[in-house]
Amino acid sequence: MLRTLVLVTVALAFQSAYAAERITVQQLEQRLAAPASAASDHSEVPLAVLQDATLAVQIDNIQLSERLTRATLERILKEHSFGLRTQRELQLLADRSALLDPPASELPDQPAPDLSQQQRMLDAARAYVFQTLTHLPNFFAMRTAERFSGISPEVNQTGMPVHIGLYPRGASTREITFRNGREVIDPMKGQRPVQSMPQMGLESWGEFGPEPAIVLVGVSTGTIAFHHWEQASTGLAAVYRYSVPEQDSKYEVNYTCNGSNAFHAQPAYHGSLSIDPVSGAILRLTLQADSKADDPITHVASVIEYGPVDIGGRTYICPLHALAFSVEEVSVCFRDLKDQALVHNRTLVRPLILNRTTFSDYHRLGSTHKIITDVPETPQEPKE
């Protein structure tokens, strides 16, 4: 039965490889509301399993033109009883759309702030990043990273039937420590050899201040302007678009292929910055590097979402979720091949690598003391 299901799923994937579409979130919801049809002549496979596999493959081949926000995804999953695979592909679809703007229908009907208000919000954001975010209390938190890779519609340039989809490539969880304004690595873990901790894709770093700081310093010589309002979990968020030129970039991209062909660059980059208009807290940050044609790694991008967490009885705005994207230009690993046709084909089939990080279980780092004074003596029993 399992073998039959695998064959059916692969067949569906190849049949739909040419059907990658760019649709809106509303069109996605309309398709999800329609009854799922499964392949026939496979009566030995449960219908629910076939429907789950069919719908998941269809979602694999969709490219959204708008962001599938966390709130909309949660609502969709509550309204439908999807199988586990369909739920996973919907989450990956939302991840793949994370660099886009939400649908216009989800944007608040709020007039744009005037120039003085825009500047005040930017000044508040700078104060928040340099005075608050980097001066959080010492704490522990759990960092869980899930890794996915595969061919997505966004990067498929083959024009041939290929197996579209991102697939799990492992996960890891580790405890992180934030002490004296920076994230630190456990000294015992830091002594482990790199070979025992293989990483895939773009390793995100700087969520607790360095990345927002790099952006806010960079835009002082780049450009930044208010773009629109969004509805965040904490209320309204002012969204700015920014860009930083290469000569002023402090954003680093490092890459090696099979332990060789080392690559280092500080490319130009652009993205968006979502700011709480009252406190100046950073609520969301996106960053996309401007890769060059001959770079061995392209489509380098990251998304960080912040929200309220409790640390030691007080509420702070801290990282909750992060995404890191990268695409390997596979031919750089095969430059010594004599078959140039093979090299060319490899450049067309380029894997997208996605790392999804979740931060949870924030706990104040410290010790608790309890001092008891003037304890009355325990009365002794009278002797008989």
- How much of the sequence lies in strands comes to 25-35%
Distance between the termini: 83 Å
Tell me the series of helices and strands, N- to C-terminal.
HEHHEHHHEEEHHEEEEEEEEHE
Give the C-alpha Rg: 25 Å
Strand order of the largest sheet: 5-4-3-14-13-12-11-10-7-6
Estimate nothing, just give the exact number of structural domains.
Answer: 2
Oligomer: single chain
- Major sheet: 10 strands, antiparallel
Number of strands: 14
Whole-number average pLDDT?
Answer: 80
| Shape category | globular
**Low-confidence blocks of residues:** 1-19, 187-198, 335-346
Structural class: alpha+beta
Q: Helicity level, as a percent range?
A: 25-40%
How many helix segments? 9
Q: What would a concise description of this structure say?
A:
The protein is of the alpha+beta class. It has nine helices and 14 strands.
Helix/strand layout:
Layout: H1 2-15, E1 21-23, H2 25-33, H3 47-60, E2 62-64, H4 70-79, H5 84-96, H6 115-132, E3 139-151, E4 165-179, E5 182-184, H7 187-190, H8 210-218, E6 223-232, E7 235-244, E8 253-257, E9 260-265, E10 269-275, E11 282-289, E12 297-311, E13 314-328, H9 340-348, E14 352-364
Parallel strand pairs: 1-2
Antiparallel strand pairs: 3-4, 3-14, 4-5, 6-7, 7-10, 8-9, 10-11, 11-12, 12-13, 13-14
Helix pairs in contact: 1-3, 3-5
